[in-house]
Specification:
The chain is mainly α and about 110 residues long. It has one domain. The chain contains five helices and no strands. The protein is globular. Keywords: Membrane, Transmembrane, Transmembrane helix.
Length: about 110
């Protein structure tokens, strides 16, 4: 759980600080970007501590679904974008075991 917390915190701060600097005053956009970063941090953190979770694919799928839905909502707040983003994010979350180790982190 410690790696998940650190991963979520790191990804959230990595997005929140530049968002505050460049989008100050647009609080909805900052909240959506930070939410997407938190769910992606959760996805990465679960992959780091994979053996401590009983069903890591399920948790990663949920985190990816939420990140995709928030991202779709941030593009255009319509049901079509939210559902398509959620489905795409869910697929990315379930398949995260294969691709997350190749994602470059700063």
């Amino acid at each position: 759980m410690k790696a998940v917390f650190i991963s979520v915190l790191f990804c959230t701060l990595l997005v929140a600080i530049p968002s505050l600097l460049f989008n100050f005053g647009d609080w909805v956009r900052i909240a959506l970007q930070t939410g997407v970063a938190a769910f992606l941090g959760l996805l990465i953190g679960i992959e780091i501590e994979r053996e401590t979770y009983r069903y890591p694919h399920l948790w990663q799928g949920i985190a990816g679904l939420m990140a995709g839905a928030l991202f779709g909502f941030s593009l255009t707040p319509s049901l079509v974008f939210v559902v398509c983003g959620g489905l795409f994010g869910g697929v990315l979350g379930v398949t995260a075991h294969w691709w997350v180790k190749f994602a470059p982190l700063p």
